[in-house]
Amino acid sequence: MAAQRLLVDIHTHVYLPRYASFLRSRSAAPRIFTRTTPTGTKEERLLILDDEPSGGRPIGAQYWDRDEKLKFMDRHGINVSIVSSANPWLDFLPASTAHQLAGELNEDLESYCSTSPSLSSSDTLKRLYGFGLLPLVPEVSINSLLEIVDQISKLPHLRGIIMGTRGIGNGLDDEALEPVWEAIAKAGLVVFLHPHYGVDSSAWGAKDNGHVLPLALGFTFETTTATTRLILSGVFDRHPTLRILLAHSGGALPQLSSRLASCIDHDPVVASRLKHDARYYLGKLYFDAVAYGPEELGFVSDVIGRSVFKYGSDADGFSSGTKKVVGSSRMLFGTDHPFFPPLKETDKWKSVTENLEAIESVEGWGEVEKENVRGGNAVRIFGLGS
Amino acid sequence: MAAQRLLVDIHTHVYLPRYASFLRSRSAAPRIFTRTTPTGTKEERLLILDDEPSGGRPIGAQYWDRDEKLKFMDRHGINVSIVSSANPWLDFLPASTAHQLAGELNEDLESYCSTSPSLSSSDTLKRLYGFGLLPLVPEVSINSLLEIVDQISKLPHLRGIIMGTRGIGNGLDDEALEPVWEAIAKAGLVVFLHPHYGVDSSAWGAKDNGHVLPLALGFTFETTTATTRLILSGVFDRHPTLRILLAHSGGALPQLSSRLASCIDHDPVVASRLKHDARYYLGKLYFDAVAYGPEELGFVSDVIGRSVFKYGSDADGFSSGTKKVVGSSRMLFGTDHPFFPPLKETDKWKSVTENLEAIESVEGWGEVEKENVRGGNAVRIFGLGS
User: Amidohydrolase-related domain location, by residue (chains A, B) (predicted)?
Assistant: First the structure.
């Protein structure tokens, strides 16, 4: 049953076959193209951004084939995955195409999940659930977005929505999105906020450091910025039941949250705008546990717990215990599969084992908290028992 | 004596009178200009960046008058300050002007410090020490930089060098700077790495959030990026005695350090480049304690300590104790004065008391560690006893 010890991966991506075909048809990024390797074989590569270093990255069946996803899960002991389309989603499309493709991809993903194996013969729980997609592109109508929120809420194996940070062109702090937040909150869907654009690449300098700077820093800066702008816009004051899950453990937001609070306190433009200290809002958010180190995970749980004990945010059902214990109730294991494959063939992927070891090694988390981060929290938050 | 309990502020800025006059003569940012307020009085304002929101900020004697600095110190119980020029230093000047002004400002700062009051009648310790300036601008000669490093090393009250992140135009990971790092390390000067540019302001969106996003996020992203690029360039492998102090507790670097290590491990371009895991290098750095929250400070000490225990970096004289205890030996109190003034008249500045309360409240730091972060570490690291 769902309440048993389950390893649930809430950060795992797919390019659904329909989407991969679409990328193959394109001549500008994002695109999938074929090139001949130095040894004469052909390989497909994925170019996510036009200025991406090293001509993109190799791509293969693990990006679209469900059997590959299930094999990866079996290999790492992952019982259930909540799968999301990988960036850049539909961001680059005109509104009408984006709307149509969102609808189709959501149906595709529902089918991908609903026809997946059950966890066991006696269990109604499936091995795959999903985050749907909205056509968040410039000039889309709000009605189109609301229609797709409604579609997703009616697809039984979709439990949330993955989205990037640009909204309909002006970011997520755009007032135009108010009805969308309202609808998402009402539907009880979890928003998985995920980066794609990073920051202006001139920040990385002229040296070839591969993908390290855009991935380690650009991605996390983007999530941090988008979430901070959401906080400053008052979205969490107006929609207190909205559930947003941050990729990569919230990027840099936890470490910068007290500085953020201080900067708000000292700025006449915003000092009186929000209902709470900025640190309060971290206790309203959910964080994946994809930070690769136990000290980082422990710290994230500390700032979530601080929000509950010091700034009075909701304890999400956990009202006693240390900051770290209470904070752990909003953190969820993830792998970022199929990204971060090992450079050399190995049985298990280091990007997975590192995150599992990190959870295991957090000082101040007991066995209960570790189990919850590995799966119990996901079962509760995504309603996987029902 | 220096070994007694001292409160030492290592992050406190000045626009020396010569520099302020220079800013008044300019018609483009950075500049100081006079404007008439709605009530008809005249006020001077500082515009650091051309696209700065709210027409810059009010500026007054606290930015250049030494008596104001000493009054601020007395008001907050600060015994000694290690003063640095505020951004943007000389970045915007042609090489010859930058060279000349650096030399003059370093002499000015030496005089500012050497003629300051002694800590007590029986003490040779002064109340003010300083970080000098290098003419780090495009087209400056390396000899010019080495000449100024030499000048600073001979000015007895200057104990380090403050610098931004652009180097001589290509960032701090520029090979051309190798002789400069070597000379700084040999002279035993501490580099205070401080942000100015942030990231491309398009990241902040169209809403007026005052200075919050560039200050809370832009500044810290910039420091994080510059330090990461330094690590990736191998500077700390080649100059293991180089001492770099990061502003604002290293920005986001501590929280992103395990992700950085993972991204390096998974990228063929850089996977074999460095001598150590990326997390090792955090234990080679120094961090101010300007993060406004105890959880943040505790976490920074945790990742420094992790570097020592898990990745084998130097313990800086502290080889036993918990990670947090060992890590605290590389953290130093600061205020960021005269920035972050209170919005309403108060006896003590919240930006100061918050950082002092944060130090006082770190779980896992005993009285010894707190005293060291408040002053003992600064005495040791800057040789204030001698």
Answer: 8-384
What digits encode the pLDDT tens for the residues B11-25? 999 999 999 999 999
CB–CB contact B252 A251 (8 Å): yes
Any chain A CB within 8 A of the CB of B345? no
Nearest-10 Cα torsion for A301, A306, A309, A310: -170
CATH, domain B8-16+61-381, list 3.20.20.140, 1.10.10.60, 3.40.50.1010, 3.40.50.300 = 3.20.20.140
Contact B212 A232 (CB under 8 A): yes
Residues in chain A predicted with pLDDT less than 50, given as ranges, are 1-2
Residue A26 per-residue DSSP state = -
Contact B274/A at CB under 8 A = no
Pairing of strands B243-246, B286-288: parallel
Hey, is A28 helix, strand or coil? coil
Contact B270 A306 (CB under 8 A): no
Q: What is this model's ipTM?
A: 0.96
Determine, for residues A259 and B248 on separate chains, whether the beta-carbon distance falls below 8 Å: yes
Segment B323-349, tens digit of pLDDT? 999 999 999 999 999 999 999 988 999
Q: How many Cβ atoms are within 10 Å of A282's Cβ, its own excluded?
A: 28
B48 interfacial to chain A (CB closer than 8 Å): no
Whole-number CA gyration radius for chain B:
20
Domain boundaries, chain A: 8-15+64-381
Chain B residues with CB-CB distance to A57 below 8 A: none
Does residue A156 have a cis peptide bond before it, meaning omega lies within 30 degrees of 0? no
* Buried residues in A90-114 as b, exposed as e (16+ CB within 10 A): bbebebeebbebbbebbebbbebbe
**Is residue A245 within 8 Å of residue A270, measured between CB atoms?**
no
Comparing CA positions, the residue from A30, A13, A181 lying closest to residue A91 is: A30
d(CA B131, CA B110): 9
> Of the candidates B103, B239, B98, which has an alpha carbon nearest to the alpha carbon of residue B169?
B98
CB B121 within 8 A of CB B88: no
Per-residue pLDDT reduced to its tens digit, A306-351: 999 999 887 776 667 899 999 999 999 999 999 999 999 889 999 9
Backbone dihedral region for residue A95 (phi beyond 0: left; psi -120 to 50: alpha; all else: beta): alpha
Q: Of B37-51, B175-189, B213-227, B282-296, which range is least confident?
A: B37-51
Using DSSP's 3-state secondary structure scheme, residue B196 falls into coil
Q: Which residue of A has its CA nearest to B362?
A: A302
Q: Classify domain A8-15+64-381 by CATH number.
A: 3.20.20.140
Listed range (B33-42, B169-178, B279-288) with the worst mean pLDDT: B33-42
Rounded CA-CA distance A48/A57 in Å is: 9
| Contact: A350, B265; criterion CB under 8 Å | yes
**pLDDT at residue number B37:** 84
Condensed to tens digits (0 to 9), the pLDDT of residues B182-220 reads: 999 999 999 999 999 999 999 999 999 999 999 999 999
In degrees rounded to 5, what are phi and psi of residue B366?
Answer: -85, -175
